[in-house]
Amino acid sequence: MPSHKKMSAEEIVHIAGLVKLQLTPQEVDKFSELIPQTLATIDVLQELDTIGVEPTSNVAGLADVYRDGTQSTTLSQAEALANAPDRLKGLIATKGVFDRS
């Protein structure tokens, strides 16, 4: 794998500033090694022969996986709330999940 030299702290801070990130000194040290490693990986990928390979954004091969927008009979609000243990303002009430402190 091609190697890239370790980046200086100034280069890392400059790059972070371009995307409006503030980094701790520990993060600057970490990224000064990680970014060159990432660039080396990109260099390897750029050497791959991709002529004739169709671009894809879906590796599963699925197409149009949505169902038809057909109408069907649904429950009325009263029917939907009929078995709800607790109701609040016409909705099913549940216990809180998030701590509000």
TrEMBL record:
One of its GO terms (molecular function) is transferase activity. Keywords: Transferase. Pfam families: GatC (PF02686). GO terms for biological process: regulation of translational fidelity. This is Aspartyl/glutamyl-tRNA(Asn/Gln) amidotransferase subunit C. The lineage of its organism: Bacteria, Katanobacteria.
